[in-house]
Amino acid sequence: MLPLLKNRVDPPIESYMTPVMTRGPSVIVFSNDMTCNLHCWSCRSGPIIEKRQDEIFRQTKNVLDTFYDSIKFISPIGSGDPLASPAWLKILQTFDIKKYDNLDIELFTNGLLIPKYWDSLSHIHDNIVRIKMSVDAASKDVYEKTRLGGKFEEMDRAMKFISKLGKDFILNMVVESDNFTDIPLFIERAIDHNATRVNLTMLRNWPDIRGGDETFHKKDLANSNHPKYREFLKLLEDNESLLSHPIVDSSRVVPAGHRVIQRS
Ligand code: SF4
Predict the structure, then answer these.
(1) Within this chain, do residues 30 and 128 fall inside the same structural domain, yes or no?
(2) Which end of the chain has the least Cβ crowding within 10 Å, N or C?
(3) How confident is the model over 105-124, as pLDDT tens digits?
(4) Which residues pair with 74 in a beta bridge?
(5) 162 and 257 in one domain?
(6) Would 152 be classed as within a structural domain?
């Protein structure tokens, strides 16, 4: 049993913190550029192309050059798209992979630019172990309403392309009131495209969401007062076997802190 907080005795700070790092990090998840070729409303209030590309390039290169002997895994970039960012594209295209000892790279991307740039990354093909693609939809109308700036046909082409690369292929869907009806098709498409995992998560109230709190509350299916809440639960109930497929992680689709698939 965990001790009550008031009874807990913390170890001396020196035992887990030293004033100077004695070894470098082995895992680095980068989020240092918001540049993206899309401008999804759930993520930002408008298109973002960061101007400080030289600074991002220098900063990233400095981190990689400093810790090359300890880094085992990197993931660019949770904040934008690594192939839409000129700085990150240059980092990846000029990566001196021979300096590293078995470096694993995860690309966190909307996927659209992978077919265009894949050949230019041939020197790191073996190191790219995983492609994590955020898609959020499975039909043209929902995709183009959700992933602003994206064309369904391009996404479809990119999914087919990535599915043949033989990499760990993860598909992400942020569930909200405009796209939840696509969940079954999303999982079926993921299975058809050799995805190794499907992550379903609920919409979160990011500070940059377009339309702020008002949009969030309009789209948030975790709210049991949402007009589509019951329809959402019914869809989940009706698709329980798809949601339990071994590649699907639906554990975070939990509105209001309760199990979604509940009998009423
Ligand atoms: S693709 Fe990802 S990073 Fe780009 S705008 Fe959409 S959610 Fe944000």
Answers:
(1) yes
(2) N
(3) 999 999 999 999 999 999 99
(4) 28, 105
(5) yes
(6) no
**Residues 48/36, Cβ–Cβ less than 8 Å:** yes
* Atom number of ligand 1 nearest to Cα 43: 8
Residues 178 and 263 in one domain: yes
Q: How is residue 80 written in tokens?
A: 């934008």
> 39 C-alpha vs ligand 1 centroid, how far in Å?
6
| Same domain flag for 174 and 103 | no
Going by C-beta distance under 8 Å and a sequence separation of 6 or more, which residues neighbour residue 35? 48, 49, 50, 53, 80, 81, 84, 85, 86, 87, 88
Return phi, psi of residue 200, to 5°.
Answer: -105, 125
* Residue 39 CB less than 6 A away from ligand 1: yes
Taken in order 119, 191, 41, 257, is the CA torsion positive or negative?
Answer: negative
User: Is 167:180 a contact under the CB 8 Å cutoff?
Assistant: no
164/128 same-domain check:
no
Predicted TM-score (pTM) of this structure? 0.89
Q: Whose CA is nearest to atom 3 of ligand 1?
A: 80
Per-residue burial over 205-218, b if 16 or more Cβ lie within 10 Å, else e, is: eeeebbeeeebbee
Residue to mutate (ligand 1; options 45, 75, 81; most atoms within 8 A of CB): 81
Q: Which helix (H) or strand (E) holds 106?
A: strand 104-109
Q: In which domain, by residue range, is 232 found?
A: 158-264
The answer to whether residues 240 and 203 belong to one domain is yes
Ligand 1 neighbour 33 (Cβ under 6 A): no
> What is the pLDDT of the chain when averaged over all its residues?
91
